[in-house]
Each structure stands twice: as structure tokens, then as C-alpha cells.
TrEMBL record:
Pfam family, one: Kinesin
Source taxonomy: Eukaryota, Metazoa, Chordata, Craniata, Vertebrata
Source organism, top-level taxon: Eukaryota
SMART domains found in the cross-reference section: KISc
Record-given protein name: KIF25 protein
A GO term, aspect molecular function: microtubule binding
Family: Belongs to the TRAFAC class myosin-kinesin ATPase superfamily. Kinesin family.
Organism: Poecile atricapillus
Keywords tagged on the record: ATP-binding, Coiled coil, Cytoplasm, Cytoskeleton, Motor protein, Nucleotide-binding
GO biological process: microtubule-based movement
Subcellular localization: Cytoplasm, Cytoskeleton
Amino acid sequence: YQGLAGRSTDEVLQLCAAHGQQMKLQRSSLVTQLHGAIKRLKQDLKSLHSFALELSKDFQRQNKTCLYQVLVAVQGIQLQNEAMQMFQMKAFDLEQSLQEVTERYEKEKQKRKALHNSLIELRGNIRVHCRIRPLLPFDDAAGHLLSQDRQRNVSEKAAYAADDETVLVKCSRPGHASVNKTFQFDRVYNDLESQDAVFADVAPLLTSLLDGYNVCIMAYGQTGSGKTYTMLGPQLEENLAFSIEEESELGIIPRATQEVFRLISEKPPGSYWVEVSVVEVYNNEIFDLLAKDSYGKVFGIKRDVVTTREGKSDVPLLTHETVENASEFLHLVNKGLQLRVTHPTLVHAHSSRSHLVVTLTITTVVFGDNFGTLWEDEQTSQRLSKEASCTFPQKMRDNKSTSSSGASSPVQLEATEKMKQVKTRLQLVDLAGSECVGMSGVTGAALRETSFINRSLSALADVLGAIAEQRAHVPYRNSKLTHLLQDSVGGDAKLLVMLCISPGQKYLTESMQSLGFGTRARQVQRGQVKKKNFPVPSKGK
């Protein structure tokens, strides 16, 4: 407005009109731009609407597709579930069938075993069980004595338990193809089976003692194969005492004693009388390990073995100690074990150098009024207990008696006309191990011991061979060991040989020798074992 000052009215009006026209043009331009913007916005909205519709349609199509796929998947899962249920039903049926077959197999196996045992009883065959010990640290101790080829296989296992009746041995020599050999026995224990499993198969024999049968259990095998562990269990190195802390590790001898006294405890008091003797066969000489000097100290005394008029083997003046429980028995055996000869070798640090024979003699006392039976009622039991206590000397009742096998027992000296006795014996034998001198590395006196050990074991094999071939003469007297065990080996006892072998390739030759011995022993037929029959009741009474 300052520029309008001094101008005429017409000029002002023209200027205002021009300004108005200019403003109108500007507004028209703005309206046109706004209209174009609105038009473009409408087009964008239309495109966006079309895109939204297309997107919605696409979403619906994809939704239908997904629903269809989900439906198909659900149907597939249902079919899979049905198939799984069918499979589970079939698997359950198969498990039941397998269980039934397994049960039938076990029953048939037990029947076969019972029939096999009956056949063994009738034929008088020797039962042979084989135990394979685990690999031990000392298996590598003698490696420096071996050839280079054998040193490479020093830790390799050659003997396995294929099943509970079969031993598989892998025989391999440098430059030759490996050959597998199998050996069949009545029972085979692998290197993981415990002392409990071993004794479980031995225990049934012990009931035969109270039924009137003699029983003999002997461990055979090379040195260091686990015979003493199997028969006695782990022992302390210094005093050779039984390690009672681990009862699960106890061997056959302490377990058998506990079982015998358990069986006796179920019988009426006074019906049984138990004695024990412990001898060792060392360098083909028999030593009484329970003999005492004038001061009562136990020391080994040399004895001799003879054949009686009845053709039975006997050791005159042999010490028999009366025992009333397993603890007393183990105490006496421990005393004897302290005198047993041992010597360290390259194979075993505590190698037994003698054959140990522990004999448990059970005298069954049967009275005339009850012949053929063991007391059936409590009154009879009490009456016979009193009668037995009057008959038994006080020295024997105090469990301090010692008698000679060649002389009559205290009961026999005091026996009345109404009392009869039946004696049965349980012989538990821990044989010394066969040795290869090159393997054990023994010299001097130990070499002489090895010679006697191997000769006595060869004599035992010769005796079994003679019995198997039914020769007229059986060379029992070729060795003090076979002479001492004549009654047991010759058929007067149920005999079980516990074959112990080492699994290592290093001991393959020795293991094969032991397995061969067990195979030959199993084939021996001695005739039916004789039973010590109890007197028959008198019909007149």
C-alpha cells in the first residue's frame, strides 16, 4: 500500500484489478494442482483396493491350501497312529510269543538237563564244569620270556564262553589261518560270572551227602588259572586266612561247608556227626596238615596211603577233627593252609606247590527202632537225642576228639545194638597247577616240585584213560595223588571236575591241554555210583 501513495484512482484500480487477476490465476492453479493430486490419489486408492482384493483372494487360496495340507497331515498322522498301534499290537504279540517260546525253551532245557544228569548218574560219568577267569594284570608279567610273535598277542583273549555249555578257542599261529575250536561241558562260566553262580551249580550235589552218596569236587587247571580262588576264595597274603568280609567272594570249600551244616541243622539233633581232615600231596608224599606235636602245635606229618581189604584207599593215623559248625571247620582249614607249600613263579606270585585235599566225613546215626528213616516226630527226636548223648563220649560232645581213620571212632566204640552208622564223605580237592617250565621260570627246588606236580597230574589222566577204556588194571598206585583219590575217581563218589583255564593267547597251549583233559574226563563211564543205603525197617516190629 505504500507504493499506491501519490497515484491516481485509475492506476490504483488497475493495480488492484491486476493483483486480483493474479490471485485468481494462483487460486486456479492451486485448484488444478489439488484436483490432479485428488485424481492421482483416487487412482492410487483404486489400485490399492485392487491389490487388497487380489491379496485377499490369494490369502483365501493359500488358506484353503494350508487347511487341505493340515487335513492331509492329520489324516496321515491318524493312519500312522493306527499303523503304530497295529505295530505295537504285533510287537506285543511277538513279545508274548517270544516269552512263551523262551519259557518253553527253559523248561525243555531244564528237562534236558535233568535227563542228562540222570544219564550221567546211570553211566557214572564225571561232571565237568569249565570256568574262564578274566584277564589279570600279572598276565603280562612273563611277557619277556615269550617269543616276539607271542608277545604281540600277550593281551589278546583266545578262550571265550560261547554259551553256558560251550567254550570257543581261537587257535592262531604265525603264518597260519586262525582256527576256531569248540569244547562242550556240562556248564561253562564266562569271566564275568560270580562265585555265587559257580556254587549254585555245585550246591545240589551236597544234598546227596545226606542221601547216602559220597561226593568229590576237584579243581583242575594250569597254574594261575584261578583254581584256589574258585575253591577257597580270596586269601590274605600273610596268613592265608579267609576274607570273610566279602562273603560274595568265598569259594566252593567254605560255601559247601556252610551249606552242609545248614542242611544238617534242618535234621533232628544228634542224627549227624561231622569230622574234617586236611592233607596235602607234596612231591608225591602225603602230609597230615592237622597233626599236632606233644605241645599241641599243628605241623605237617608225613603219612602213607594204603588199600584196605575191601579195596578202598585209606590213610592210617590220619588226624580227624570233630566239628559242629562251619566256623570251626574253616578255623581248622586255615591252620592247614598255613602249612601248605607255595612258591612264587613268573606266572603266579602265590603258586600252590601241592595238591590240597579237604575231607568232610559225615556219620549218620540211625537207631534200630527207626531204621530207614530219620526221625519223623519231635518226641522220637528228643528220645533219640538223649540216647545219642548217652552213647557219644563226653570228649566228642565237647568237640575235642581226634581219631585215626584206621581205628574205630568214639561212636563205634560205644555203639549199642540199636545204633547203626552210615558214613559219607565230601572231598574238596584243590589240585596244584600244571606248569610249563619255560613259562613259569622255576629253578632248583621249585623245578623239582614242578616235575612231581606234572607227573601226578599225568598219572591222574592215565587213571581216567584206563577207566574210560575199561582196562583190567587201573594204575592208581602210580602216584600218591591217584591212590588217595582212588575211591572218588574210581566210581565210589559223585565226581565234579571244575576245569579252570586262563583266557589269554599267551596260555593257549596250557588251556588246550586242560580242555583236552576235561573232554576226556567227561567221556569216562564208571558205572552207577553206589549209595550208602540206610538199614531197612524191621517188619517184625
